[in-house]
Amino acid sequence: MEREPSGQLLGNLVLFGRALRRLGMEVTPAQIQELVRALAHVDLSRRGDVKDAARAVLVSRREQIPLFDRAFDLFWRSWEGWQGPGFDLDVSVQRSQAQEALQHVPEGEGNEQGGPDSPEQETILLRYSAQEQLRHKDFARLTPQERSQVQQLIQEMRWTWARRRSRRFVAAPGGRRLDLRRSFRRNLRHGGEMLHLARRRPKEKARPLVLLCDISGSMEGYTRMLLQFLHAVTRGGMLQERNRVEAFVFGTRLTRITQQLGQRDVDQALAQASRAVQDWSGGTRMGQALRTFNFRWARRLLGQGALVLIISDGWDRGEPDLLAQEMARLQRSCHRLIWLNPLLGSPDYRPLTRGMQAALPFVDAFLPVHNLASLEQLAALLETGLASRRPARP
Amino acid sequence: MSTQPVSTPQSIDQLVQALEAHAYIPERSLATAIFLALKLQRPLFLEGEAGVGKTEVAKVLAQLLDRPLIRLQCYEGLDVSTAVYEWNYTRQMLQIRLMEAAGHVDEETALEELFGPAFLLKRPLLQAIEPVNGQAPVLLVDELDRADEEFEAFLLEVLSDFQISIPEIGTVRAQEPPVVVITSNRTREIHDALKRRCLYHWIDYPSFEKELRIVRTKAPEASEALARQAVAFVQALREQELFKLPGVAETLDWIRALVALDQQALDEQVVHDTLGVLLKYRDDVQRMQGRVVQEILAQDR
User: Fold this and answer.
1) Of A19, A138, A140, B88, whose CB has the highest number of CB atoms within 10 Å?
2) Range among A85-89, B88-92, B111-115 rated most confident
3) How far from each other are the two terminal CA atoms of chain B, in whole angstroms?
4) Distance in angstroms (rounded) separating the CA atoms of residues B49 and A267
5) Domain residue ranges in chain B
6) Interface ipTM > 0.85
């Protein structure tokens, strides 16, 4: 059964792997070797089987499937003589064509490079004294100089948030549960007499945190600072416990920017995030955006008692009924739903807009987010202010 | 590739036939992935929505290859003592008492005896590595997305060289790696490192023809006409914007429910009464009531 693939085929497979890598798929040389082994078991004249085989070996996420299929079709366009000597098309030409054609495929997740490759940034607790005034100044009214100072302070804030008991246990002297395995070992020395009991307690884990930030026109004065905040929290979360934070922005549509924000360099991260977003400073259709979140992401991200923060002024041009319905669903599927509103900082603000009215009944906490002091207040709430038991919901 | 048992299908076509003979109707791309997993002796990672037949693949493979099936259902907090092995403490204690009564407790021999195979409780992963009657079993790691990252890391270790070390006994190594099927409903993303060790396949909802064949095979008690109508209805339902779409498992449940209710054909009333078999969210059920059902039924005719 085993056939050695011709040298030409091997070369083309290597090139194909490289083409996929350029398109953002992580294809390792080991996978290409595996593919060569796999193709020895497949009838090479059946193009469909070869494609299925290559997909099974090279793809590891559903999102990559359409990209892979198109790349395969383009790359192996001239199938007939693809392994024989008749194969004389210049592969590099094909490859560049493939790349060109695939430029317009919407970016999937997982093709950003930046990883946490640097030593942890030194985190300093917020300095109180001199910045007192700055702390209380509204983000929208900062001078450029103050803005960079505040940005610096946001970067230095330390974000930790509520934890929950996981179902794993760690050894702990005062723990409630017996650790039979360790007790037994320890007491073998005494001939099996149970003199010391080892104990254990549940291990704690940070809850997943999901950030949903409004970037429509009405939020414009705050967007820059809020993105700084998003970056600090997302990046901080990745450093402490990997992948525990997810960040999204929305106006008329929902965009996931977690990967972009994972970069260490703030400016680069924000630049990449803004490139990913297509609806800056436009209108708001929050109900629709939340619906997209609920349908596409909620089940994957809200699994383990997640906290959800929505940051928005509540100006919504969509249907209030849809917004209320999606808020209700979102609240039911997470541990706590917290709404941060920059307008809440002004003393005479009343949440009267239709959107805000529709959403408020489903919010567990409603807080301002207009200056540094309010971010600190939020940090305190996230860290210790949430009771571990979820309130009953209708 | 010399250790393949005789019954292993030798081509994709043979495998498709064999699967169908065991009442599993696969897409060809799935059959290709399974075939390669067997040939290359690599784990098969199946993702897809609930109820599209992921778990079934492992069960059918076990029948088809005539090997025992070992199932590990994942959940959060799954740890070594439930997934791999645990010592039988109560028996060990009893043994100590017996040894005492007999009047000899020499630490060396006692330890050797107490931590020997007789006191070892083998959990699924360890069972899967030790052959049963000389045959490597089929190991099903079900719903891996429910386990936590700690377990994933451990599984990665086991899958990379099919060996497990037990400090007191030594290293247990699989002579022939088991056939491994891992499933995920994708409630969270599984780490790439693990997936890269496997062959990956996304199982989609089947086409109308495929689903009809599945229904005819699995629920032959339903008339052809009813099966056609019901499958068309479910297919149309999957076009709707629903929070949770019905899977093939739901289609089969529904057909059986309809047969149990002595239905010869679909009508609005019976759909209304049995919609709970297909849709499991209140919002979805409400959305589908009344006009929408009428429209779908009208289309089917």
Assistant:
1) A19
2) B88-92
3) 53
4) 39
5) 12-77+123-203, 85-117, 208-300
6) no
